[in-house]
Amino acid sequence: MKTSSFNSDQDAWLSTLDQKILSSWVALNSQPAALPEHYLARPALSQRLTHAKAITWLLAPAGYGKSVLLSDWYVQTLEHSQSLEHEQVLGIWLSLDAKDNQAEFLLRHLLEAINNSIPGVVTDALAHLLASKNQQYEDSEAVLLLLLDELKDLNCPLILVMDNLHYINDPKAWQVVQYIMTQLPSNMRLILSSRYIPVALGRLRLDPKLEFIKQNELCFSLKDLDRWLKKRGFDDQQQALSLMQRLQGWPAGLGLWLSRRNNTSSDVEISGQEQEQLSDYLMGEVLNNLEESLKTFLINIAPLQCFNESLCNQILQINDSSHYIQQLVHFNIFINNLEHRPGWFSLHPLLVEVLSPLNSEEQCKKIHLLAFQYLKEKDFRSEALHHARLGELTKDAVKWVESEIDSIIADLNFSAVLAWCDIAGAEIIERSLRLQLVQIWSLLLTYQYQGVIEFVGRLNSSQVELHFPGQLLAIKGYLARGQGNDAQARSLCGLALKELPENRFGIRVLMCSTLTNIELVNKDPEAARIWNRLELEIARQHQATGLEVLALFDYARVEQFRGHINRSLEVIEQGLVLARSLPSQNQLFPRARLVIYRGFIRWLQGDKANALEDIYSGIDEANQCRDVTVLLGYSLLALINLFDKKTDEALDALAQAERLMQRWRVSEGVYQPWIAIVKANIWMSLEKWGRAEQSLKFVAQMLMSNEQNGMGQSSSELFPMQTDFYRLSNARLMVQKQQYSQAQKALEPIIEEAQGGVMRLSAYFMMSVIHVATRKPAKAKKSWQQGMLFASKEKIQIDISSLLPKFNNSLLGEQPFSIDSIKADDKAQNPLVNVASSLSAREKEVLALIADGFSNQEIADQLFISLHTVKTHARKINAKLGAKSRTQAIVKARELTII
């Protein structure tokens, strides 16, 4: 009897102790994750969670900040609801672990956690769970039915967070989660978080209430990273770019990097400790949880970075790579599918960096050699060149590089070519005329003109002309363009096009692009469009998608120069769609240009948020492929900050750009004038007129330096509007000095010669300011109206006053910004407006194609009408506009903003 009583008391005591342990464990795992010291709030992602579907699943590998993002959002949501008088939100947080991977324990965890947050609501469900346990049978569905019935009767919204769901792969435990998902009450949100999907979801994937937030949304963008670094006292854009390229926005990696920077002073020590910490994190959180065979496979393929089943089989001399690849994909081990290349995958660069050294140096070189041989046979040139560089393959790669010169140029992967040339060394390069030409073109297209001049000086010209007809002309023409000698460049590029063989399509496209930009700078968009059409035709004829995308970038610039902002944006979108079909490395060069330019157009149209996203994204991609168009991105950041009255940030963006150009050894004439012009406008906004004048004098010296050598005034390939921006800035300085007549003379060429675009718009407004200052209100109003009409037509919505002197706009009338009054006033003053309104829709279509430079026959083909009908429309257009020729009709149509 005593023994029985003792055993009974002991069982009761153990039961009480177990309950205490369970309660403590539940309390510990019901706390949202603590925010790290370096946490960066991300309002856009928090909003994404707030407005997401009823079942939202955060899915990403370790270290992507799932738990801390959820914690921040969860706490803020509950706190915000407490501050409101109605509908307080109740929350339940479950941090799961391996113990939860059995149904009974998971249910008990869930019920205890809910009971802690909402006392009494789980009484029936918990009683049924304990009763079924005592009777040694499981009835999870009945327990959940009782629980969810109680929860749906609560008169308030509920949030249930289940963090670390990847621990739940037992079928019965998963049924608990699945039942909650399928029977979720309407007043409840279920937020899940895991590194991978632990079981097959089946029909759950069709549930309209379910949506995923994956690693591409959770990783830091360059904009996020830049903001995060500045918050921590690191104001270095190049550091941000370097980290972005290496870590690809992986939050844990950034946190580890920062912790080393804060605790260590020596750069060498930082590098070593950082590598050790990153390796330790990945080993502890990812690799040590893998089976040994899968871990070995991952280490062996790490030097490849990009791979498919066939390549892995060949490298490792096995035939079951697909089994291991499927496991890596299932466990989401920092692996991504390659878009538009089915069956191909890529590993995160940091994983490659950590795992590759676990192979011997000899083994790595063997892997790179085998990969190079495989990839060159498959015509994956960029990837083959990548492995040739990493494996320090010179003799093995020389003949292939020589034979693929035109295709390599067409791939636009010049930074990789330069890197391989550096490894190959001068001795090997100088033995081969083809390799010398490859290196020269790579230097040209990365704007390193001094290096080109040195190489060209050592070339055997007679041999080049004999074996590579047209190439020397093309090189000299491209170089002349880069140095601002447009007349010589136009002549040489034209001759090169005639001499270059058909199969030199890459260089022929570059010649057309050069001629397009020459005509654009010289304000002849019709001629520019003709060369651009040929550029597109050659690229399409040879199915060179990268070159076609580059040609569309040129087309977008032509349309923007014409003042067709909306059409320019349409062309950009067309190019971006086309770029998606390219391999990831080949996308970078043309895509970076288009994305940055789209940012420019979006900014003009008042969409600053998306413009900034584009600009930061474009800067990141341009940095990866060493495209000097990154300078346009930084300039736009500077201008946006200037317009927002953030002059320190504007100057900082220009300083970052200048440092990057110097690091890339870009010729000074490419970037210094443009940076100085933008900087002059910043100084003027700060009323530092002396500094502004110094900047503009510096520009004048650089722009005119070539004129002294008989080459004409220097112009910019990167910035066709550079000359007009310089004139506009000079006019602004002259207005400040009250030199109104000189300012007016500086603006007249912009208004008379420019076809449209933001420079002409600015010139109209600046002219209006001059007329206000000289007490000519009628002329002031007219100039202002012309600008406003253009801005209205193309939906330009930025406040351009940051580029204008201060003035009294009351002289422009009571409502100088009223588009309706401007249109009415313009119609009264210009009877041609009434005539223009009589143009039919078909006549306007024909007129637009005439303006695009189409012949009558081409217009007929485009519109599916007869040649006779086109001629009839053209005669009517000329008659209605009072024009005697196609050219006059185009000019008058633009004046009336018909096209």
UniProtKB/TrEMBL annotation:
Domain HTH luxR-type: from-to ranges: 832-897
The molecular function GO annotations come to:
DNA binding
The alphabetized UniProt keywords are:
DNA-binding, Repeat, Transcription, Transcription regulation
Q: Per the record's keyword annotation, is Transferase included, yes or no?
A: no
SUPFAM superfamilies attached here? C-terminal effector domain of the bipartite response regulators (SSF46894), P-loop containing nucleoside triphosphate hydrolases (SSF52540), TPR-like (SSF48452)
InterPro entries annotated for this entry? NPHP3-like_N, P-loop_NTPase, Sig_transdc_resp-reg_C-effctor, TPR-like_helical_dom_sf, TPR_MalT, Tscrpt_reg_LuxR_C, WH-like_DNA-bd_sf, WHD_MalT
* Pfam families reported for this sequence: GerE, NPHP3_N, TPR_MalT, WHD_MalT
Does Transcription count among this protein's keywords?
yes
Single Gene Ontology BP annotation: regulation of DNA-templated transcription
Endpoints of the signal sequence: none
Name of the protein: HTH luxR-type domain-containing protein
> Which species is this UniProt entry from?
Oleispira antarctica
